[in-house]
Design goal:
Length: about 160
């Protein structure tokens, strides 16, 4: 069964996913990386050329493809914007919500041009987006994990809970 990591941009889903991948000797499927590979386009260009709804559909299709496999899945922060993706994630008992203070996340993602939903946003604008998404993360997650700690500690907590 898949282990799925959800949470806001910059929380460390891919980094923690790599540690879990090594521990369990399972492939890591980073949904954003997978989408870039299959479309041959960077995410900001997908948003620009086709819109966010198109990107969310690509996310859903990728999640649908990988969810039943023996892999670690690192999702994009906005995967919960799609009701179809949320439905899939609700049914997965190994969905972990990595949580972190928005101020920490803001400092991590503030100048990252690969995050179209964060580019040029103030801390207050990101707080609003975070608040909007928090309820959905909570609704789908099997367990909440404090991701403000060192990544090895975060990965160990996930491993111990499985």
């Amino acid at each position: 069964m898949s282990i799925v990591l959800v949470g806001f941009m910059g929380v460390g889903k891919t980094t923690i996913g790599k540690l879990l991948s090594e521990h369990y000797d399972r492939p890591l499927v980073d949904i954003d990386t997978y989408i870039v590979e299959i479309t041959q386009l960077p995410i900001p260009q997908i948003f620009e050329n086709f819109g966010e709804a198109y990107f969310r559909d690509l996310e859903y299709k990728a999640l649908h493809k990988w969810i039943g496999k023996d892999v670690i899945i690192s999702t994009g922060g906005g995967i919960i914007e799609s009701e179809l993706s949320k439905d899939i994630l609700k049914d997965n008992l190994n969905t972990f919500w990595l949580k972190c203070d928005i101020e920490i996340l803001f400092n991590r993602i503030n100048h990252d041009n690969n995050r179209p939903n964060a580019r040029g946003k103030s801390l207050n604008e990101l707080k609003t987006l975070y608040s909007k998404r928090e309820l959905s993360y909570n609704e789908i997650a099997y367990k909440h994990i404090d991701a403000s700690r060192p990544e090895e500690v975060v990965a160990s907590e996930i491993i111990e809970s499985l």
